[in-house]
Structure formats: C-alpha cells, structure tokens
Design a protein that fits this description.
Number of strands: 5
Number of helices: 4
Largest sheet: 5 strands, mixed
Radius of gyration: 17 Å
Helix content: 25-40%
Strand order of the largest sheet: 2-1-3-4-5
Shape: globular
Strand content: 15-25%
Order of helices and strands: HEEHEHEHE
Distance between the termini: 33 Å
Amino acid sequence: MSGKREDYISWDEYFMGVSILSSMRSKDPNTQVGACIVGMDNRILSMGYNGFPNGCSDELFPWEREGEGLKIKYPFVAHSELNAILNYKGGSLEGTKLYVSLFPCNECAKAIIQAGIKTVVYDCDKYKESDSSIAARKMFDAAGVVYYQYKHTGRKVTLDL
C-alpha cells in the first residue's frame, strides 16, 4: 500500500479558490469579487459575487465607476459578501468563516458582524488606506472578528471547463 496522496490542496487554498472562481460570475467589467462562507465543519454554506440584485437587469443599470449619482454602479451593485450572506437559507451564520477575494468595505463589515461571522480571510487589500477599509477594520476589531490575509502558496490549479 502506498499511502495517501500528499499534494492535495489545503482548506484555505480550497475555499479561496472557490471565492475566486465565484468572482468569475461577476459581470462587472472592472472589479470581480467572490465570497464563500464556510461552517466550523469546513462545509460550504453559501457563496456570492458582486452584481445587481435579482430582477435588476445588468443591461438596464450602469457599470460605470466614474460619474455622478445614478449614472454609476455603486448605488445598485450588491457586494459579494452581502450576496453570500443573503444567499444563505439555512438559518444562523454564527461562528462561521468568510473567504473573500477583496477585503470587505465598511458596509459589508456591518453585515458580516451582524450575521455572526467570526473570521474573515481575504486575498487582495488594494483599498487598505481608504476610509472604508479603515472603518471595516475598526469595527472588526471592536466586534472581535478575526481577519487575516490569505497567504499564496504559488500552487497552480488548472480547470478545463
């Protein structure tokens, strides 16, 4: 008997990979973000990506980043973290872990805290110095939400779809 395979991916690699794969469903031409909520038993509970709410056609609402008021995407787009929370139909998310491809904004931080999610693992942190990210960290710290950046392993995974 040769023993078990040793080159399997870690839980962090697996769930961050699911988040990144989920982000590929986003139709946003600039920023694609995915999220995956995981239970304490390492089972996926929910996923989400950034996009317009159900019933709001991506043909009728703007995708622009620059401009004013209702001519830009920001008043309309639901972030991946909020979508993952709202997509969960199983009850409480107390004590769960969220994997997300971009550090959460302050609005998503509020939803994460209120949902009872206790750990956030994020990949990119390109807005670290923004007021939104600073506020999110401040709220996470106050609420006891643990957060840390995903450490890339350099492993290549290829999917032939």
